[in-house]
């Protein structure tokens, strides 16, 4: 967001009071935008950049009744499919929500035992710069998080009371029947999407008690190659206990052409006498490879 001289404390306080007093069922977006503009003028914070790396992976989950056949079924929904406000989107606005970790997506979709899920894994191919919001002690305490607020995501350079207010609204837990309660956070997200140099918003995973990180990205991060699809997994939730999911990977795909997904079975690795297996884990994904290395005497 561009930097201007901040409004007076009394103007900011009045704008915050006005937003707190709104009936969000009927509140006008233009009025919300006006008050947020008064609050955020002169507010200075720092963005956070994820740099390109084969190991910088994002994940996204979709509960599917049947095996997806096309990439359109696992990415951001088309605008006509978005009928309600989301934490960072307006109705009719397609935003790419993702997580910086493997476990978070299952919590975000509230997966249950027996659910079949298409898990997509994306590589950050170009620098991805996001606006961190919600990284405050109040949000983490309210979420009963077991981690400390990451210091690199909590660098507020001015007007910390503004950051606390914005974080409070952006990190509210709201059910689908009351999506209008997202009007303030969704409007604030639009300001981030329109800011030069930002690709979206980074915020703690509230479904996982702020123990992980989520992001809301403009859809052009895919079309301009900032993130690229690496692979897909078709998984089944076998157990959900406390804060952990157990899954079984049924199928795998690294082949997608012209929007179509080509699924492959998980091939077992068979060992002959004298052969060894190499097991590696990357972003929670196990790899089993037979090696030609013979055991040493």
Name its key features:
297 residues; alpha+beta; 2 domains; five-stranded mixed sheet; five-stranded antiparallel sheet; 21% helix
Description of the molecule:
It is a single chain. The chain has 297 residues and is α+β, with helices and mostly antiparallel strands. The protein folds into two domains: 9-40, no CATH class; 48-257. 21% of the residues lie in helices and 31% in strands. Strands 1-5-6-7-3 form a five-stranded mixed sheet, with helices on one face. Strands 2-4-8-9-10 form a five-stranded antiparallel sheet. Helix 1 packs antiparallel against helix 2 and helix 2 packs across helix 6 (183-193). The longest helix is centred in the first third of the chain and has 12 residues, at 9-20. It is elongated and about 75 Å long. The mean pLDDT is 89.
Write the layout of secondary structure elements.
Blueprint: H1 9-20, H2 29-40, E1 48-50, E2 53-63, E3 96-99, H3 104-108, E4 116-124, E5 128-132, H4 137-142, H5 160-170, H6 183-193, E6 200-204, E7 213-217, H7 220-223, E8 227-241, E9 244-257, E10 260-265, E11 276-282, E12 285-291
Parallel strand pairs: 5-6
Antiparallel strand pairs: 1-5, 2-4, 3-7, 4-8, 6-7, 8-9, 9-10, 11-12
Mean pLDDT: 89
Helix-strand topology string? HHEEEHEEHHHEEHEEEEE
When the domains are counted, the total is 2
**Rg, Cα atoms, Å:** 22 Å
| Number of DSSP E strands | 12
Provide the spatial order of strands within the biggest beta sheet: 1-5-6-7-3
Q: Please estimate the helix content.
A: 10-25%
Tell me, briefly, the overall form: elongated
Low-confidence stretches: none
Terminal CA distance reads 64 Å
Supply the helix-strand structural class: alpha+beta
User: Count of helices?
Assistant: 7
Major sheet details? 5 strands, mixed
Strand content: 25-35%
């Amino acid at each position: 967001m561009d930097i201007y001289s901040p409004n007076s404390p009394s103007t900011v306080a009045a704008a915050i009071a006005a937003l707190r007093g709104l009936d969000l069922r009927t509140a006008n977006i233009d009025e919300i935008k006006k008050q947020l503009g008064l609050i955020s003028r002169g507010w200075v914070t720092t963005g956070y950049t994820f740099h390109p790396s084969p190991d910088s992976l994002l994940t996204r989950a979709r509960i599917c009744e049947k095996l997806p056949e096309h990439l359109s079924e696992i990415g951001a929904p088309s605008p006509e499919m978005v009928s309600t406000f989301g934490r960072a989107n307006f109705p009719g606005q397609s935003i790419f929500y993702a997580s910086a970790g493997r476990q978070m997506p299952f919590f975000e979709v509230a997966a249950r035992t027996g659910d079949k899920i298409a898990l997509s894994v994306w590589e950050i191919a170009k620098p991805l710069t996001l606006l961190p919001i919600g990284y405050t002690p109040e949000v983490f305490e309210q979420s009963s998080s077991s981690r400390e607020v990451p210091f690199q995501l909590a660098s507020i350079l001015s007007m910390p009371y503004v950051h606390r207010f914005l974080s409070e609204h952006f990190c509210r837990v709201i059910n689908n029947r009351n999506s209008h309660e997202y009007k303030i956070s969704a409007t604030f997200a639009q300001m981030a999407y329109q800011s030069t140099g930002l690709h979206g918003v980074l915020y703690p995973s509230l479904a996982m008690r702020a123990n992980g990180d989520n992001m809301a990205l403009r859809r052009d991060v895919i079309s301009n190659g900032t993130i690229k699809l690496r692979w897909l997994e078709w998984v089944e939730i076998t157990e959900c206990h406390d804060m952990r999911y157990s899954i079984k990977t049924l199928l795998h795909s690294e082949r997608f052409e012209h929007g179509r997904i080509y699924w492959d079975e998980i091939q077992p690795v068979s060992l002959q006498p004298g052969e060894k297996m190499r097991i590696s884990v990357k972003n929670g994904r196990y790899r089993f490879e037979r090696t030609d290395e013979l055991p040493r005497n």
